[in-house]
Write a structure and sequence with these properties.
With 179 residues, this protein is mostly beta strands. It has one helix at residues 81-91, and strands at residues 2-10, 14-25, 28-40, 45-52, 57-62, 65-70, 98-105, 108-124, 127-138, 143-150, 156-164, 167-172. The radius of gyration is 17 Å and the shape is globular.
């Protein structure tokens, strides 16, 4: 009954690994543990978050220093929040105007609020695909995030684009295999 999401980036300069362990309960993600490791030429950072739901506590260990933060459900981590939005879209009777996801970012509790900008056709995986575009503007960090999810793929993420004062980066789905 436990599932994992993970992401690994291994470039010449940066090595990054993230993992989120969770279980499903009543069509909701219940996060159990989050791990983040960064190395390479970038400064090293190791963060582990243990979600202790029986105590409403989040135990955060960052570079061997531990602290506790009081929490309440629902709460996600920096990797699982997109999956939480996907589940919100899957279980909605109609397309909502906005989505909100509370998450733990290191030792801070935050919330991302996305506007549902509507349907948009994208060229993905050598073809056209109907998507739903989600947008978030963060004036504090001067960051604009757009996420495209595909209803035909159960609202899986097919494209993410983020722009801030350091530039722009983009992730895009190249292949998809449904099992």
């Amino acid at each position: 009954g436990t599932y994992s999401l993970s992401r690994k980036v291994d470039t010449l300069f940066v090595k990054l690994y993230e993992r989120s362990d969770f279980r499903l309960q009543d069509s909701q993600l219940v996060i159990l543990r989050y791990e983040y490791k960064r190395g390479g030429l970038a400064s090293r950072k190791n963060i582990t978050q243990q979600f202790q739901w029986d105590k409403n506590n989040l135990q955060i260990t960052e570079n061997e220093k531990t602290r506790d933060v009081a929490i309440k459900p629902p709460l996600y981590d920096k990797l699982s929040y997109i999956e939480a939005m996907r589940l919100q879209l899957l279980t909605a009777k109609e397309l909502p105007k906005a989505l909100s996801v509370p998450f733990a970012d290191r030792h801070h509790l935050k919330q991302y609020d996305f506007a549902v900008a509507g349907h948009e056709e994208l060229s993905i995986m050598n073809g056209k695909m109907d998507t739903v575009r989600l947008e978030r503007h963060d004036t504090e960090d001067n960051r604009h995030t757009q996420i495209w999810v595909a209803p035909a793929l159960d609202y899986a993420l097919v494209k993410l684009q983020q722009t801030d004062e350091d530039g722009q980066y983009q992730l895009q789905l190249k292949t998809y295999e449904k099992k």
